[in-house]
Amino acid sequence: MRPPAITREEGSRTKSSPIEGQRKAQYEEYDSEKKKNAEEIKRLKKEIKELSAAKPSEIDEELIKMSGLPIKELKEFLNKPPEEVERILDLKNMDLRKKLDLIKYEIFKKQEKILDITKQMEDFLMEMDQDAISKYSEPIQKEISRLENKIHLVNVNVLEMRHMQKKYVRIKQSLQEDSVYFESTLKKFEEDIAKQQTEIQRLQEVKDEAFTLRDKTRNALAKLEAEVIAEGIGREQELQDLRRKVEEGRAYLEKVERKLVPSVKTLAREESDDADRLVETEDLAAKEAIEKSLSKLKHVTGAKDEMDVIRKFKTQNETKDRLVKLKETVEKEKRDLEKRKESLESELEALKFAQVKEKEQNEEELEKLKNSIVKKKSEKIRLESEFENDEKQLNDIIEFFYDLCKLMKGFEDTPAPERNEDEEIPELIETVEIKIAALMKYVEDNGILDEMLTDEMLEENLGIEEPFDKKGEGEKEADKTEITDVPTRTFLKRQSQLIVEAKTRKRGFNRDPIPGYK
């Protein structure tokens, strides 16, 4: 049978072999959880927008499930004002920061402990006889070098973690500054939008007033136009009546003239006076007709004399010209108002488009900030898992020292130390040094280092069935007198060869890196 130290070491290697696969599986699980969390955040954002207008009077079960908080704490948050909730969340944030500082302090203490262990191991190796150690403790040397490499990797990883922590703190500060800037910019944009809405309402009122004035002007112009048309029609009818009467008088005079022409030829002298009287009569009739027409015009227009009638006609012409000019002016103002309306509508559309675009940009920035927060949380989880792995490596180192003490308990009267979490590592190293010194003394006293190796002795030593550390307390004295029952240099060399062959088959002489940092 082989000593238990070899089986113990092989078991630890067997346990550490699937760590790579476990790490990949954990990363895949983290990615899937990250996607689920992103979808959940989007869904919660929509629900927050819907529920932000009014505070719910009752807590539904879906809100309790999505929040992940106890019902009592959630009710307290809902019943408190936002300032109180913000203060409570700030206090919780401070508690989490204190826990983070405590974790940093523990990492620092463990790092100092690891450095102290490394220094003590170096002092321990310098004090030992290198020639004697190389003959029978080659596996121990390799394991120590492997542990030193692991300790170095732990130190490097701790430095990397500190660097990453500082980097994330700077990123967090920059994100907080950006959030303040974006919040102030958003408020400014909201104020500008409110001002623009007020200006749009004012312009809309101006537009409505312009439309009302346009309608009133159109109605007034239509009334004036109808009155002018009616007056023109009346005047036209009066003129036609006057023309008809003048034509009738003219026809009557011509008829009278035709009747009087033969008598004039025969009785020229007698009728000459009558002709003069007739002409005078016609002139008087024409004057009477004209005076009658003027009197009718005076009656229609309400004028006092002929000059008043002429003045009224001129006034009507001037009124007509003014109405035409007023119509042209109103139409021009109408065109200007329509152009201004089109320009204001185009400006309104541009402002709406700019507002929508700015809103989309703000939503994108907010989404980026939330994604960065999710990434930081996942990074924090990853660092915590790495810290657990480092702590596990440190526990493996301590376990190795306990196994080493058990392996050498037959060479020294001091009993092997029991496993105790409160025991300091330097005390454990001192115990190992005492046992190794006892082993060296035992080997020198029995002359084992001076024995020559042969193939027959190798086969005989390999045939030992019971290890020295499995015997009872009553057989220790017999073991000291019988050299064949004590593990010799040959047996130790064979153990180291088996360990080297196992490493060659499994890892190809590569140092085992710390899990999670490959």
From TrEMBL:
Biased composition (Basic and acidic residues): 21-36
Name of the protein in its database record: Uncharacterized protein
Coiled-coil spans in chain: 186-259, 316-393
Organism whose genome encodes this protein: Cimex lectularius (Bed bug)
GO annotations of cellular component type: ciliary basal body; ciliary rootlet; ciliary tip
Record's keyword terms, sorted: Coiled coil
Record keyword Coiled coil present: yes
Region feature Disordered, mapped onto this chain: 1-36
InterPro entries, per the entry: ODAD3
GO BP annotations listed: cilium movement; outer dynein arm assembly
